[in-house]
Amino acid sequence: MMSDERKELISTRLGLYALALILVASVLVWEPYPALTSLLCMAMVALPRQARHRLCMPLPWIMAALTAIVTVLHSMGILIGAYDVIWWWDMLTHMMATSVIAVAANLVIVVRGRRAVPRQLPVRYVPLISLGMVIVLGMVWEVAEFAADVFLGQLTQYSLHDTAVDLSVDILGGALVAILIPPYLDRLEEDYGICDVTLASP
Amino acid sequence: MIFGFLPSFLLAAAAFCSFIPYPDGNIYWPVAGVWALALAITAYRHLTTTPLMASTLAILLLAPNLAGASLAPDVQFILLPVVAFLLSYLTSITMDIGAEDLIPAMSFLLANAFIGLSALAFYYVDRIVGTSFIPTNETFMLHLSSGLIGIGLTALIFHLASIHEVKA
Hints:
The structure holds two protein chains of two kinds. By secondary structure, chain A is mainly α. Chain A has nine helices and no strands. The N and C termini of chain A lie far apart (39 Å). Chain B has seven helices and no strands. Classes of the chains: A mainly alpha, B mainly alpha.
């Protein structure tokens, strides 16, 4: 049976290949926005592997797969204009992206919360705090889009309705994770996110 | 005993004053007042342990009334992020979460969540009832961006002040 790490590696590689294809296609048709987006997305796809090996925070392999899928959908959506043609594309990517971010936020807060002083943060508060983080990230994203429209002449925000629905979907994704994740957080091992200190060989 | 509960009384009175309407007044200000009132009623015992912060919050809530009708909307706009942050801070303290070093960061998140959720709530009220609290995308974005910047600055000042306090 394939291990979680192996599944994560395959998901990451598939995501990187797909994003590389989108990057090449964007360069060929001379579209800098999806080209830059796919480059940034490549860095994001590599994050679950980095979290496993550098931060001792193995994520469920499905996180790597979801990260790959949502970044490919986002980059491809910009390249082929799916955001303009398919009304639910924006909602799909927002919902998936915030769900992935919310899971990551929960795990980071658990690890940080265990080192809090004077007492560690009770796990029951973690989903709520991560929901707050998702809301703030959603706000930052919308403000960034607005700034891109105003200062760079882009068209990322179509209307007030579009902005409000995006933010609502973000919150929905964060709330869904906040409801579903507590049993998973309870099962996390005590040393999750704590790396062994290894002395460098002379 | 009576003096111990003075911050709660003051906060409740200031919260009631935040309901006084002004022409072109900030629509989120009375919502912050409701939050302050709820805090003054449900957490009055906790507020006795943080009298300075509760009193400061009460004075900030009273500030638009002291400034006068012509200046009140501007004062409300400037002070809303600070009020939201202090409300979040006091709320976090009353929850007795233990992780005191995380409270400023959590207050930042909670205050911004308040800003975002209240903006969305007014948007949906407009859609359902036909009012025009948030007529344009620019209004919506102004609220979100001013909230993020204002609360970020308040949290930063709080952080710097706490570092200074530890060093002293």
